């Protein structure tokens, strides 16, 4: 029986990189950004998101041979809209009388008579 030999996987070394991007679109309430830098072994970055409650979430992170470590902070104060008030529902019972049905019993003579 012939066996297939596989070559050991070749891994490319990570290249250093650096990027930054941001989105701010008032019409859709989108406001966030992200920047990251890597030397090929250690990656550091930060991203910021404007949350719906008015606070800003800022995550600063580092990824290396020891894993991913993130520090999450919030700035600002959460603001919630006033709770809406609703009036009690108005319900009126239906104004009709149910029909009255009186059934007259009907007895039929059995068609088969037992024989003894």
Helix percentage: under 10%
Label the overall shape: elongated
Number of strands: 5
Number of helices, where a helix is a run of at least 4 consecutive DSSP H or I residues: 0
Structural class by sheet pairing and helices: mainly beta
For the largest sheet, list the strands in their spatial order: 1-2-3-4-5
pLDDT under 50 segments (min length 5)?
none
How much of the polypeptide forms β-strand, as a percent range? 35-45%
Specify the biggest β-sheet: 5 strands, antiparallel
- Name the average pLDDT: 89
Distance between the termini: 88 Å
Write down the secondary-structure element order: EEEEE
Rg for CA atoms: 38 Å
Would you kindly provide a written description of the structure presented here, covering whatever features stand out?
With about 120 residues, this protein is mostly beta strands. The termini are far apart. The protein is elongated and about 105 Å long. Strands 1-2-3-4-5 form a 5-stranded antiparallel β-sheet, with no helix packed on it. It has a domain at about 15-75. The protein is built from no helices and 5 strands. It has strands at about 15-25, 30-40, 45-50, 55-65, 65-75. One of its GO terms (molecular function) is structural constituent of cuticle. It comes from Daphnia galeata. This is Cuticle protein. Keywords: Cuticle. One of its GO terms (cellular component) is extracellular matrix.
